[in-house]
Structure formats: structure tokens, C-alpha cells
UniProtKB/TrEMBL annotation:
This is V-ATPase 14 kDa subunit. It comes from the Eukaryota. Belongs to the V-ATPase F subunit family. Keywords: Hydrogen ion transport, Ion transport, Transport.
């Protein structure tokens, strides 16, 4: 936990496993996990549903999502304007991070440097 708030992760099995091994795994009082494993058969609607769930949970402070799956739910990420929970796009083993695609970084650049 981070300051009383959980970190969550949405990503491929290797990414999620790495974070779980790092100790971020938790279950809510209702026994809902703070992670969601996505594979090649996962439908976009399932990623959307889990992202919405994590963003709505009052115990969540950070939602980490691998950038390749963030691309599939970009409309939800772009629509999220609250500072908490923060959405962080992260690389995966097979997909490097591309700063040009990161919505949060684009917003920060717009505020700080006047670029969009």
C-alpha cells in the first residue's frame, strides 16, 4: 500500500506476476483483487470493465497498465481527469514504453511546456 492507498496493475501475465512478487497483491474486503491479467484472448470490454472498477475503488491510489493494453482503452484513460487514482502507463516485456502515447505525460507537457 502507498499512503493508505493500493496500487493496481493491468497487464500481461509476466508483468502482473512481477508486481505480485514485489508485494502489491491485495484483495478488497469483498475479495476483489487489485490486478487483472490480460492475454491474447481478453476482450477489450473486459479491460475496460476492470479499469473502470479500479478507478472507482476508494482504496486505489495508482492504476498501472501496460501501454499496449492502455492503447485499447485510450478513450477511458483520456477521459479520466481526477488526480487520484493516477493512471501510469508502463512497459511490458514485449512492448517498450513510448512517451508519445502516454496521456498523463501529454497532459503534463501541456501544463508545463505548453505542448499537447
Amino acid at each position: 500500500m502507498l499512503g493508505g492507498k493500493l496500487m493496481t496493475v493491468i497487464g500481461d501475465e509476466d508483468t502482473v506476476t512481477g508486481f505480485l512478487m514485489g508485494g502489491i497483491g491485495e484483495l478488497s474486503k469483498e475479495r476483489h483483487p487489485n490486478f487483472f491479467v490480460v492475454d491474447k484472448d481478453t476482450e477489450t470490454k473486459d479491460i475496460e470493465a476492470n479499469l473502470r472498477t479500479f478507478l472507482a475503488r476508494p482504496d486505489v491510489g495508482i492504476v498501472m497498465i501496460t501501454q499496449c493494453y492502455a492503447e485499447r482503452v485510450r478513450h477511458l484513460i483520456d477521459a479520466h481527469v481526477e488526480p487520484i487514482p493516477t493512471i501510469l502507463e508502463i512497459p511490458s516485456k514485449d512492448n517498450p514504453y513510448d512517451a508519445e502515447k502516454d496521456s498523463v505525460l501529454k497532459r503534463a507537457r501541456a501544463v508545463i511546456g505548453g505542448e499537447g
